[in-house]
Amino acid sequence: MGKRKDYMDDGDDSSDEESGRISFDVTENDLEDELAGFSGFQHRRRRQANSSDEEDIPKTHLGFGQAFKPAKQFEKSKSETKKKKSEDVAKPKRAIVPDNEFGQFSVHSNKLGQRMLEKMGWKHGQGLGAGGEGIVNPIETKQRPTGMGLGFRGFDERTKQAKTEAKLRKAESSEDDQEEDEEPKPKRREAWKTSDKPKKRKNKTVYKTATEIIAEAQGLPTQKVLDMTGRLSREINLSDIRETPTMVETTTRLPELRHNLRLIVDLTRSDLENLSREKQKNEIEMKALQEEMNKISSSMEKESKQLGKIERIKQIAQDLERINKDALATGAYETGNITALFGEKFDILEKEFLADIKTMNIDALVVSVWAPVFKYKSMHWDILKEPSWGLLDIKRWKKLLPSNDDSVAEWGWTRKDTREDLVFTPYETMMNTIWLSKVRSAINNQWDIHNPEPLIVLMEEWEPVLPRFIFENIINQLILPAISRAVEEWNPKTDTVLIHTWIHPWISILKLWRLSDLLTTIRQKLSIVLRQWHPSDESALHIILPWKTIWTSAQTETFMVRSILPKLTNTLREEFEVNPRDQQLDALNLLKTDMVTYKLVPISGYKDLEKAKQRLVATDDELVSIIMINCGGAIDVKEFFDIDEYTKIYILDSHRPLHLSNLDPKNVHVCVLDEDEHTEKFDLIMNAYDSVMYAYESESDDSEEEQMDPVSKRRRLNNEVKTHRTSRHKKMEQRKLLAGYYTIGSYHASSSSSIVYEIANQLSKSNNDLLWLAITGVTAQYLYERIDTNKYIENIKIFREDTARFNIREDRSTQDEVGGEIVIGDEYRFMLLRHWSLYESMYYSSYVASTLSLWNDTENNKLHSFFALMGFRLDQCRQIYTHMDIDLKDRLQTKIEEVAPHLGLTELSYPSFTRTYNNTCTLSASDMVFALSAILETSPTTAARLGLGTSMKGKDWQYVVEADTPDEVYSESHRWWLRNFYQAHDALNRSTPDVILYGIRLSMETQKAIASHVSAAISRREFRMYPSFRYLLINGGPDLAMLQHPLALQRLALFSSDIYRMHGKRQMPLILATLDEEHDSYLVVTFAGALRFGDTKRNRFAVAFQEIAHEENSSISLDSIEPTISYMKKTDLNPFINKLKVMKLL
């Protein structure tokens, strides 16, 4: 680099060192000439076309254009151009005459602009500019007519001034053209004329060079030429081509200078690259040195901190040693309070050295001062009286006492996973040598096996802090052997302490899998004792009942079949008597345990009942009892099942009328559990039944008649005639009474759920869950108008007393935290209010919709008025009820009581109950009814169409139906109903309301379909009125799938009946028929609406309906348990309805 610098500073030319090379002397004139040559392109347009020196300019070697001019010649041409320009400027211009009105506007102004122009040399009437060549008159404007576009019909927008100036400019331009164009115009060709001369041959094409073309074009007018030699095309004149230097000329001038410059650039670039690489290398080395220095500094800082920690821990250890010695000297050891002695120092270790416990063996330091105090105190520790002594101190300082069971994430230190490499930690050593020794001694020498409480407290309290191996050691080597010995020695006959009192408390600690062998021994001993047991002895009840929740279902069933059922069977056969009016259950005390095995069989019709009979009853020789819930009351069940003398049938059926053979006292195999039929009128009916069924006609004795005299014989005959007439008349009255009982119409008595609840009360088995089921059953009857208001209120009164008894909470502050509590309160007739919006709940409620005529109010003005009178905003009423403002909810009851009577809503509420589930959801009894109804009757296809799917897990819902008769259609087409039944059954037993909430969503969609269809049917007058009934046929529509089920049709009938009742229409029975397209059949439901709201009416129409169906012998299915439901083929519906029209049924 230095040599290069010296060489350049000497000013020597590198070309001088080489022999034979031409030497160039670069002067200032050469630089100026080159500059002029490069910039000549800028001055070429200013030069004149015909220059006197043009011929002297040499041509380039390409013959196109001229070479660069010398500097002196360039200056000469430049001065000539300036002179030519000055001559052009001095050329006189045509004078512009101002208008006559020129300057008149200045009269109205202060002439400021005029004075400024005059100061700059302008004179009145002269044009603008230095030579006066500019405009004279001010700029004028011309207004275009309104609405006219540019150039419309040739309209000229130029002003007079503009036209005058244009003419002047045109005249000047023509004069210039005449001066420049002095050559005569070429003679016009007359090629189109015919000529006698012979045609000349076409000349051969001659190619010319650019130099020749330029030479020929010297005298021709200037033409534009496209220059394509550069990157971009440009237009140039032929005259300019001569003056433009070529690429060769511009790149070959001063080659030595260009070469030297390139050398300087290359050397400089190389030097810069070397310097850059050297800089990068130095930066990398500097960075590495800085990182190494940072590491050394960090290491030194850590070592310094570690040294400080060691010094700090050393000081704490000395303090702990001093405190320990002082405590021993002062007697503080006797209290054994670790926190009081060492708490201050332990707190420092926990806060400052928690992460260093394992690395610095701080736990050993803690145990070294802890163990002496712990050992001294344990010498006087009574474990059974103080099982939790010392536990608080260990829990408080457990972070300072790690063990091998602690998680890695908690302590931040790692250990090998293999158990072989583990060694006792100081804490584990202390607990194993001191604590475990004391506990082992107490269990072996002091513990009473029948009093497990102290030891259970010890294990439960110490389990979180004990090392796992110590806990398992106590269980497997101390507790389990002691319990096993006690069970082997246990005698159920002589032992006064029940075994479950000292076995069950251990289940939470020992777990059932550890106690499985002991439970087997206990069952064996109980089976041996029960061989001499009688069911009337309640002692077995107290022994067996606690084990119900401990044994598995299979173990319980095996135990019951082997030890209990034989005794119960013998008692039922030989000792038990059925007396519904005064039933004695002393001999069946064991039934209170609910340990009898049973099978639940859902029944949708008599076909299913027949199948259950063939599959279960006929094949079970050990069957003891059949309990029929809500079915069987209308048939002779003894004849139907054909049971043997050892089987009993119990009927809990709310359907009426009952088959009187089931109520016959002489029928000892059937027991109807009912509380409504014990009236005087019913006693007369039963007496009539006995008289008709068991009448005895005495036959006269022929020998006695022969011995009588004629007078006595005649007197006897007269008496017999009178007696016969009286007896015949009485029998006719009795038969008439029986016929009236069966034809009085179908109705409902007390619900089966309330009867079961009453039996549970008598057996002392009633609880909150059974109470809720009973409330749900009674509410369902009331909502479907199966019982009247008076009957409903009677049941509610009973339930209120039991609700108060089962839902007492001593601490009311924790009441909301307890799930399943039943609360008494009034319920509005707003459907699903807690889960819908207030607006929708009222709109789709049959009572509100019928009273306010919402079905006929397309704008819902009446409902809007109701909210307006209450002062509730419509947007709040449309929100989900749980999202409404709290103040609106608080004022809802008061506002409804004020406004509702004015709109005719006088029966808007009724007494009911609600239940809370896990403090997250509140359900009313009516919510349960509507949800369960929807779950039972919504097919999977319909649920999927509604976007709700199904919450039932299992096999596919699809099935194939091949049926020829309506009975088979009814049974096969409702196969999915069986799954729905179990889903609803599980929902009643769950502690969470998930399935019920799913049913509520289904019920909402069903109610929308019902309200929409009823409104449309009444508006379109689809209800046909006949002398004895109203008739509605549902053949299609988007909601047809939701209306193909009995309960949905009954709700539709209730909705329609409320509308007709509220508007004073005649209450008539309803026949509703819904098409089932899949099976080409109709579901037909009959409904008899009551005259007043809250009353019931016996459905005589349903009885007549079934009688006609039997008489006509049509293919109509009367298989349903409900007498108001039937199925028939599509082709049989119209003929059957036509026959009903002409018949007077009522």
From TrEMBL:
Residues 174-183 have a biased composition (Acidic residues). Keywords: Cell cycle, Coiled coil, DNA replication, Nucleus. Residues 109-155 form the G-patch domain. GO terms for molecular function: chromatin binding; DNA replication origin binding; single-stranded DNA binding. It comes from Rhizopus stolonifer (Rhizopus nigricans). InterPro entries: CDC45 (IPR003874), G_patch_dom (IPR000467), GCFC_dom (IPR022783). One of its GO terms (cellular component) is DNA replication preinitiation complex. One of its GO terms (biological process) is DNA replication initiation. It is found in: Nucleus. The lineage of its organism: Eukaryota, Fungi, Fungi incertae sedis, Mucoromycota, Mucoromycotina. Residues 72-91, 154-173 have a biased composition (Basic and acidic residues). Residues 1-102, 141-205 are annotated as: Disordered. PROSITE patterns: G_PATCH. This is G-patch domain-containing protein. It holds the Pfam family GCFC. Belongs to the CDC45 family. Residues 265-330 form a coiled coil.
